[in-house]
Amino acid sequence: MSLINLPVTASWRPVTTNKCPSKQTILFTIIFFMILIILYVVVGLKQEPKTEIKYLLDLLKGSSPKVLKVSYDFVTEPRKIMSLKTIQNISFQYYNGSNLTSIENYDGPNQTPTETPLKSTIKKKELRMQATNYLTQYASLFDPNKTTTLKADPNKSSTIQTWWQAAAMIDWYFNAPRRHVCSEIKTMGNWLICQDPPYTVRPPCLVYSFGINYDFSFDDAMSLLGCEVHSFDPSMKTETMKRGNNSFFYKWGISFVNTNTFVPRLDWYVKSRQEWTVRTLKQLMKELGHEKRTIDVLKMDVEGYEWGIVSNLIETDVLKYVRQFMLEFHLFPNFPSMSDYVHLYQTYTALREMGFIEYFNYPHPKTLKKAHFNNQCDVHFVNIYFNWTSQA
Ligand SMILES: *[C@@H]1O[C@H](CO)[C@@H](O)[C@H](O)[C@H]1NC(C)=O
Ligand SMILES: *[C@@H]1O[C@H](CO)[C@@H](O)[C@H](O)[C@H]1NC(C)=O
Ligand SMILES: *[C@@H]1O[C@H](CO)[C@@H](O)[C@H](O)[C@H]1NC(C)=O
Ligand SMILES: *[C@@H]1O[C@H](CO)[C@@H](O)[C@H](O)[C@H]1NC(C)=O
Ligand SMILES: *[C@@H]1O[C@H](CO)[C@@H](O)[C@H](O)[C@H]1NC(C)=O
Ligand SMILES: *[C@@H]1O[C@H](CO)[C@@H](O)[C@H](O)[C@H]1NC(C)=O
Ligand SMILES: *[C@@H]1O[C@H](CO)[C@@H](O)[C@H](O)[C@H]1NC(C)=O
């Protein structure tokens, strides 16, 4: 609709038929104000659209000299998320496709976060306070004298560019409200499985379990359920053996490479130099004769190596065989390196985009100081894109 069409022509016609000069003055005055109004509208429109991001940024801009960095991100599935968080008491605002929504004071997995529409309930001043609170708490993680402003691009998740932004977003995933509702969660030793259809685990089921450290409680529980269970741990002083009628132990590890001379980093479990036999999941499935078989449950606790391994699982296209996947994610003080965090964040989002959605998270106590940054979480996924017609 053209703005010019409306009142201008309506007032033009009667005036032009009248030759009175005083009326002409009135006409010029009217035109002058019309131009002013049109200019006002045009300039106003140029400032639009005032999106939610812009709205937030505007608020943050003027809030205080201590406002240094704003971290936000847009993830395509299942909801568009915008994060703006405090450390312990996380405060999130996210754009869900239609409304900017806020989760406030979400303080752990046992608390149900309250979602409130931001625009209607939170006043500018309150939002500014939340933002300042977030920035103050995050200040220990970066140089508080440096000012950085990020441009918002809702079409890209590449607004995450620094280690601490990536760490914040990974932390968000660890603490986010559960995305997939599993009504029947069963404890299996030291892990959980989802027993909701269609994910129900029942014989003939195949289970891969990586990282045992002498605790076979999960493996034995899955074995009792009637599953074929393959357990792996190269760090144990236990040789490869048959553990039961349908359960096996291998002194091998999962990795992103195939080698018999993998030298692991020293940690809590590896006190001296060792050489391990490690395989990719794709190679293990081949060697065990499970090529193209469904893995009902894949469990992994591999002390920081999971990031590279998940990358490899994605690259080698084996996740399509997996129905449930649970693993402990680790961010140790120096492993993986902070310079890799942005990539780790991308790995996590890639996994989610492949259909792996969390139904239960168990975040461990964390340390959010740069010098000894530490964050870990047990994450339980179901594969919502599993192709039920291709695999029985
Ligand atoms: C979170 O906020 C509540 C109330 O604002 C406070 O009582 C609680 O101690 C906070 N939790 C943490 C971990 O700071
Ligand atoms: C969501 O936003 C739309 C317009 O963008 C508005 O009409 C609607 O009332 C909002 N809903 C809530 C629950 O705030
Ligand atoms: C987004 O949030 C608004 C307000 O909370 C809600 O009414 C709406 O249904 C949500 N939309 C989606 C797609 O979740
Ligand atoms: C930040 O600036 C203040 C004042 O200029 C200075 O005292 C302080 O040492 C600086 N902090 C860092 C981490 O550089
Ligand atoms: C995002 O993508 C849509 C559709 O391709 C486009 O219309 C829009 O301008 C893009 N937004 C930005 C900020 O690039
Ligand atoms: C293993 O199989 C043998 C022979 O079929 C049977 O006697 C035994 O009870 C089985 N053991 C277990 C633990 O299922
Ligand atoms: C699922 O597998 C079947 C049989 O292999 C195939 O025809 C179908 O296209 C697959 N569906 C999807 C969504 O990939």
TrEMBL record:
Q: Does the keyword Transmembrane helix apply?
A: yes
**What name is this protein filed under?**
Uncharacterized protein LOC106054817 isoform X1
Q: Which domain of life is it from?
A: Eukaryota
Q: Which InterPro entries match?
A: Methyltranfer_dom, METTL24, SAM-dependent_MTases_sf
- Name all Methyltransferase domain ranges: 152-359
Q: Which organism is it from?
A: Biomphalaria glabrata
Q: Which UniProt keywords apply?
A: Membrane, Transmembrane, Transmembrane helix
Q: Which residues cross the membrane?
A: 26-45
